[in-house]
Design a protein that fits this description.
Blueprint (H helix, E strand, L loop, with lengths): L18 H7 L40 E5 L5 E6 L7 E8 L13 H8 L9 H11 L2 E6 L4 E8 L3 H14 L4 H19 L2 H13 L13 H6 L2 H11 L5 E7 L3 H11 L10 H7 L8 E5 L6 E8 L8 H11 L1 E3 L11 H8 L5 E8 L4 E9 L4 H14 L6 H17 L4 H15 L5 H9 L3 H11 L6 E6 L7 H6 L4
Parallel strand pairs: 2-6, 7-12
Antiparallel strand pairs: 1-2, 3-5, 3-6, 4-5, 8-11, 8-12, 9-10, 10-11
Helix pairs in contact: 4-9, 11-14, 11-17, 12-13
Main location: mitochondrion
GO biological process, one term: proteolysis
Subcellular location: Mitochondrion
Length: about 500
């Protein structure tokens, strides 16, 4: 789902043979979301590892109605109101089908640079007046850039929604990008780059993308290289906006104490200067598809106390029919951290083996989706002398999912996955983000009753079939940092996938 497991921002097609499974798993786009989905009987099939029958709980998953309006400019406005909210707060943002993946050759870093510059003054507001206006409302204005999306959003009191929408429309349409601000932000971003270099989990996944998608923009970092940051100009920023900030690629999403018709009217009046170029992100992806590469990036550093490595297989796109089974597989592999003190009793067999045998400081399965591909794997942190044994256990457990999985394991993993999805939408900010990102990735918001039915349709046979098609005899990408002399070679990991 778009709300889940797209883990890293800088801030990750084979079709099942059974026609029944294809119909049930596929999250293909549909222009009109169903308002009151009929619960599928399979939704009620497994409610606990013991399959104890419970009452139909789908009514609890019927959240407030999602409303969608497409303006003549092709900007989509989606709202989910909660008028009973005691706090009377709301969140509104603009989700744009544009990220570092769509940068022109030689301009990697522009999308993130633009995120910084968008708050530095417009033709109507200076940078200072913009900051004061936000502070006077007691609001929070923020943004983030990922490889495929850019977002600008505000959390406000509901009475201040008109002003927040006016601010968002102004910064996206009227930013001036003064030279002195560009110069200052170069320094800010370069310092940010230095900070990121100290965050090994960020760096390891940048290396993993570079290994998995060699020579493709999806393998580039979101910040961009230092030489690009030093030469990005106003022209680059304006060119990126005019090319990618277009009506068909924008979604305005609001949640909380909001009124749909009022939001539509405000957006229609204020968001008037965006290009209506019909080129979609899907068309750009089709013109330059990502190709998964089996390779590795190793950075040996004996000064680091622990070794970090991430292993990944090619995953699925957001709308691929295998995306739901792969989410269940991620849940099956699970995560574990020594500091939490749980391991020997974990539902994940991988976590139990790692915890019982003291093989790592932490492990974390991930499943990152993009428009045409994805990454499925595990990120591990371990003592140097544990790397070989940890690698053996890791590959054994990944291979096991292709041949020997119990229904009890899968039931537990489904329950954990559903809980994670629900916990991810706590608050109006999370709801607005969930809806905005799903509109970009699926073309609709998938109701939770429907999503849970799709998850509950994944049984042990489906997990094993999916694992065989994504793991067995498949290439791997590897990124490793630290004292990694005892980490097996890339060829060894590849050999462990053989049937």
């Amino acid at each position: 789902m778009a709300i889940c497991f797209a883990r890293f921002r800088r801030r990750l097609p084979f079709t099942l043979s059974s026609a029944r499974r294809v119909r049930y798993f596929s999250l293909s786009a549909s222009p009109i979301p169903p308002e009151e989905p009929t619960p599928d009987p399979r939704f009620l099939r497994h409610n606990s590892p013991d399959a104890i029958p419970l009452l139909d709980h789908s009514p609890f998953l019927r959240f407030p109605r999602v409303r969608l309006t497409t303006l003549p400019s092709s900007i989509r406005v989606i709202t989910q109101s909660a008028p009973s909210s005691a706090s009377h707060t709301a969140s509104v943002g603009v989700w744009i089908d544009a990220g570092s993946r769509f940068e022109a050759p030689g301009t990697n870093g522009t999308a993130h640079f633009l995120e910084h510059m968008i708050f530095k003054g417009t033709r109507c507001r200076s940078a200072r007046s913009l900051e004061e206006e936000i502070e006077n409302m007691g609001a929070r204005l923020n943004a983030y850039t990922s490889r495929e999306q850019t977002t600008f959003f505000a959390d406000v009191q509901s009475k201040d929604l008109p002003e927040a929408i006016d601010v968002l429309s102004d910064i996206l349409q009227n930013s001036k990008f003064p030279d002195h601000a560009i110069k200052r932000e170069r320094g800010v971003i370069l310092r940010e780059m230095e900070e990121v270099q100290g965050q090994v989990d960020e760096v390891i996944f940048d290396h993993l993308h570079a290994a998995a998608f060699q020579g493709h923009p999806l393998g580039d970092t979101i910040l961009g290289p230092e030489e690009n940051i030093r030469r990005i100009s106003r022209v680059d920023l304006q060119q990126y906006i005019s090319t990618h900030y277009t009506g068909p690629r924008m979604v305005v999403s609001a949640a909380g104490a909001v009124n749909h018709d009022e939001i539509v009217n405000m957006v229609g009046k204020l968001f008037t200067n965006f290009s209506t170029d019909p080129t979609t992100a899907d068309q750009l992806v089709d013109a330059n598809p990502a190709v998964f590469t089996g390779s590795e990036v190793r950075v040996e550093d004996n000064g680091m106390p622990l070794a970090h490595f991430a292993l990944a297989f090619k995953g699925s796109s957001w709308t691929d029919s295998n995306s739901i089974p792969l989410m269940v597989i991620q849940s099956l592999l699970g995560s574990w951290n020594r500091s939490i003190g749980v391991g020997n009793c974990s539902g994940s067999q991988l976590a139990r083996r790692v915890g019982t045998n003291d093989l790592a400081e932490s492990i974390m399965a991930f499943n990152t989706n993009y428009r045409d591909t994805g990454l499925l794997g595990v990120y591990s942190i371990a003592m140097p002398n544990c790397l070989h044994d940890l690698s053996c256990v890791l590959m054994e457990e990944i291979r096991r999912l292709a041949f020997q999985v119990s229904e009890a394991e899968v039931t537990r993993a489904r329950s954990q996955l559903k809980s994670a999805l629900l916990l991810h939408i706590d608050g109006s900010t999370a709801v607005a983000e969930n809806n905005g990102r799903q509109m970009l990735t699926y073309g609709r918001v998938v109701p939770f009753a429907e999503l849970f039915a799709r998850i509950d349709a994944v049984d042990a046979a489906a997990v094993m079939e999916t694992a065989r098609n994504f793991v067995i005899n498949k290439d791997v990408a590897l990124a490793a940092m630290g004292p990694i002399q005892e980490l097996p070679e890339h060829g060894w990991f590849r050999s462990q996938t053989a049937a």
